[in-house]
Design a protein that fits this description.
With about 150 residues, this protein is mainly alpha-helical. The chain has one domain. It starts with a helix and ends with a helix. The mean pLDDT is about 90.
Length: about 150
């Protein structure tokens, strides 16, 4: 089931990266559909899991990722970070697909890559210090990094 969710994550990330770079917007509908698919896959896994292990799936595949995703949405709504709401929704969707721990690792890697890029812009004087950069490409890079390195 994990591979199915990773393919779903890669597909929604590809769409989000394209729209974030092209239009500076991340559409909510693909994220909502993918999130519903992630919950459906987790519920299917729950139904076909032997007795006694189903509670683990409900807690680790649905409950904790949902709480993590809601935290990202709330953070972007109160503007603590300089991320758009679409980035918060994207990270919430990824939490349901990857799990809370992998989502946090993806966010940490994405933030690191975005920081490196921002430092490059400042050093080369291409950014004026207030230049907004799309975050979805860095989320995709963080996702690929965490998948390859198994974080």
């Amino acid at each position: 089931m994990r591979e199915i969710k990773q393919i779903m994550a890669l597909a929604v990330l590809a769409v989000s990266v394209y729209t974030d770079i092209r239009e500076r917007n991340i559409y909510i509908l693909p994220l909502a559909v993918t999130s519903a698919g992630a919950v459906a896959v987790s519920l299917a896994d729950f139904v076909f899991t032997p007795c006694g292990q189903g509670v683990h799936i409900l807690i680790w595949d649905i409950l904790f990722p949902a709480v993590t995703g809601l935290a990202f949405i709330l953070i972007t709504r109160i503007r603590v970070l300089c991320m758009g709401e679409g980035d918060g929704y994207l990270l919430a969707c990824l939490a349901l697909l990857l799990g809370a721990a992998s989502d946090l690792a993806t966010f940490a890697a994405a933030s690191f890559f975005a920081g490196l890029y921002s430092a490059f812009l400042l050093v080369t004087k291409r950014g004026a210090g207030q230049t907004l950069i799309p975050f979805a490409p860095f989320v995709m890079a963080g996702f690929i990094f965490t998948v390859f390195y198994g974080l």
